[in-house]
Amino acid sequence: MKKSNCSIFLVGLLSMVAFLYSCDKSLYVTYNNYVSAYVFEESLRIIHYKSDDMTHVFRIASHDPKANFISPHSTGEDKKLFEALSIKNKDTSYNRKFIKNDLDDINHSNNVFFAERITDISITSDTDWNSDYPAGASLNDLFLYLSCSPDAYILNGYKKVITESYITTESIDVRLQDLLSWTNANSGDTTTPIYGVLSDIEFEKYNLLGISGIIGWFAPTVLPDNLNTKMKITVTYENGKTSVLEDSLTP
To answer: Where are the domains of the chain?
Structure first.
């Protein structure tokens, strides 16, 4: 009788475990990659801010990260490309669970990056910026740049990394402070801030750059004599391709 009761209990326990496992699979999805999607350079756009406290600040980002992307759910050649990029960026053992969403189970969608590694960003103008910066001259010295990268987090086994040179909100230009706070909040401290004069940024150091399809934010330190002066922003990629964007500070 005791043996029979024990068998019944064991069968019941196994059934409960199987039920919980099936519930877990139906409620959650496990991702092996920190990156939820890669987007492509043709979606790159300049997007301006209109609030008074961020006057003349703009970002360069994928206009619609879902328009053309590859993800863990891709198939065929797109899936192969996603897996190859994951290996290249050493992003293969994230192993995190996320609650499934009826519309899109890529719930860590802030982790969207460009497929091609960015090696340089340069800014020039079509006419004289001022007497010191004629048309065609590099304006990189006149722009502050803010972004972030998850490289250190990934290489540290998906663990938070803080260094003595970690950039704090209080230490940067006031126009960019809210954007850094937003970045830290949405990345869950998985990214390391990148900040400085654009000409000082060593883009070749980073495999993955930005957050949520945003390459970075730009704030001029010197305004042009004519605010309608058109900027030419050239983004260079590791494969030698470039994206050229043109706009003024007052679109």
So the answer is: 1-27, 32-248
